[in-house]
Amino acid sequence: MKTTTLLLASVLMLLRAIAAEPLSSWKDTASKKAIVSFVGKVTKEGAADFVPVPERIAVFDNDGTLWAEQPMYFQALFVFDRVKALAPEHPEWKEKEPFASLLKGDMKGVEATGQKGLMEMPAVTHTGMSTEEFTKTVTDWIATAKHPKTGKLYTEMVYQPMLELTAYLRENGFKTFIVSGGGIEFMRPWTEKVYGIPPEQVVGSSGKLKLEMKEGKPVLIKLPEIDLIDDKEGKPVGIQQHIGRRPIMAFGNSDGDLQMLQWTTAGSGARFGLLVHHDDAEREWAYDRESHVGKLDKALDEAKAAGWTVVSMKSDWKEIFPPAKAE
Amino acid sequence: MKTTTLLLASVLMLLRAIAAEPLSSWKDTASKKAIVSFVGKVTKEGAADFVPVPERIAVFDNDGTLWAEQPMYFQALFVFDRVKALAPEHPEWKEKEPFASLLKGDMKGVEATGQKGLMEMPAVTHTGMSTEEFTKTVTDWIATAKHPKTGKLYTEMVYQPMLELTAYLRENGFKTFIVSGGGIEFMRPWTEKVYGIPPEQVVGSSGKLKLEMKEGKPVLIKLPEIDLIDDKEGKPVGIQQHIGRRPIMAFGNSDGDLQMLQWTTAGSGARFGLLVHHDDAEREWAYDRESHVGKLDKALDEAKAAGWTVVSMKSDWKEIFPPAKAE
Questions:
Q1: Are B208 and B228 in contact (CB under 8 A)?
Q2: Which residues of B touch A199 (CB under 8 A)?
Q3: What span, in angstroms and rounded, lies between the C-alpha atoms of B45 and B52?
């Protein structure tokens, strides 16, 4: 870059930073203050809690933390849509559970097939194809599928305050990672565009892969064998495998995130844990201790003892979802 | 940052870039020209081969590509040193192979125990402890252990031209990753300091981990179960699992890197593959098709057909190792 270009870029960057007030969808409550105060102290050179840029790692759960998860995980809705799309190639599914019930729209029948039945659907929809074929399927689905209740695209059901938070942390030298129980290959095709988080910073549940030659070209085939369930005790494992150092900030919303917050905040030096509490039945959904999706019970109890920030979606957030785009 | 600070930082950055001629340890031969020409075309906005910054992923093998690997992989020397250090706690090793032979310095005896015997040593030296304990052991060893032939620290046996190459690529918007058959936890403690590659950009062979509570604190225990052998067919798997997109440049030196180069260069658009050929017996070691470490045979044949760059250490590099530091 030439000197003038470089100087111009610097000035532009500066103007942009002044223009966009950070965390503008957050009300000026204790939650926002806790975030800003923490970021202030770890980024202040010479301060006791200063953390060098390479160690500023922040990890975010996805379902219920960055985007919604009701009436069920969006990836489950993807699985159901895929089963319906693939049904013409599988006439035998008309007689075989859990496919038969699903194709009739009988969700109680699907549930009745239990864990074993439910696991068959991810297997047939997520494995046996190349990683590139799967990526294309996800990309097509996420661009068009609509949420059954809101009618929005799923990528429009991300939380505006959390988008601002990830951007705010990056502006302060943080590297932001997703650490989700969701499928790693299901998230990667769209997280960069939607959250500004590139594929190499997405950690999720994963299956084994196998290299094969196909018409003289190498392809990676997705196998029906679990590699990692990136949930609960699996989250610190996923963090260590992918990131290799302990985050200093962790954001979650359910008991599936408990161990990630424990692992993060057990490190030495300044640490920050935060739980998003879904308590806004009007603008989103209200659920916690009794919910079958995103159950928040033990982690909510531990938050008090551990000094983690608990965000009330109702009281702490001005907006839930991003403003609708002009057509 | 205040405007003045920002401007000053920009000017300093610029001066530093002008001061340090890139790739100064590379002779002005075809290899250097191929690198510079490729980087030029993928970074030139508007050009047919332009690649946006987030997609500029470059992957480097470690043993034999970024640092030396003779007379055997340095991690094997670490294993031997650990067995010797742990021997006082294991009196039974005096009678048990392969430990007995190793402790007597009888390397032929060690080899005679075969694959099964050889695998026992990594198991006892790499598993059963927490990730943090292992990191400390590696950090202590790498800071003090000396190479049996050169008497140098192992981190002084990195290739100066490759250090310059990784830095040059980063200056051109690339993200540099290690993708090595070596242990991921063995590399991460020092790659940031030595290569400027942070732990989250290190992919390697790995074992399973398990979260346990120890005195009320979560720890990750290294289990004696293989998770991934990041070599040969395993390299594209490791790349997909960790990075989630296909690199555009790949650098290796042996048949263990063949599939990584195939996977990288089979992608669409501009792609670059490079092999480091160890042909300098005087300044380093000369070996290829017949070597028991870093065998380069099939990949050397394929390089011609595929148009990969083959670097001659003897003819292409002015220096091999970094200049000795003033004491």
A1: no
A2: 243-245
A3: 9
